[in-house]
Design a protein that fits this description.
The chain is mostly helical. It has one domain. It has three helices and no strands. Helix 1 runs antiparallel to helix 3 and helix 2 crosses helix 3. It is elongated and about 55 Å long. The two termini are 24 Å apart.
Length: 81
């Protein structure tokens, strides 16, 4: 439980830092270029790096939280039956 809370707090902190400009546009662009290069998709333009970073952070948080919710939900269903 503590790990889930820490993960969410860190993701919110990272999103806030990226959204309010604490992290520079060049740094965000470099990180997105690296991430998109690993996945094998076209990186976004440097001007839109902040928006794409927020989309990535939100998507990853939703995916991780959704998977953990489904794990707990399904485990509880199996335990009850």
């Amino acid at each position: 439980m503590t790990g889930i809370v820490i993960f969410n707090v860190l993701m919110i902190a990272l999103g806030t830092a990226a959204g309010f400009g604490v992290i520079s546009q060049n740094r965000l662009s470099d990180m997105l270029d690296w991430l998109h290069g690993i996945i094998g998709i076209t990186p976004p333009p440097s001007e839109r790096a902040r928006l794409y970073t927020l989309i990535w952070i939100g998507s990853m948080t939703a995916i991780v939280d959704g998977l953990l919710f489904m794990l707990v939900f399904l485990a509880m269903r199996v335990i009850r039956s």
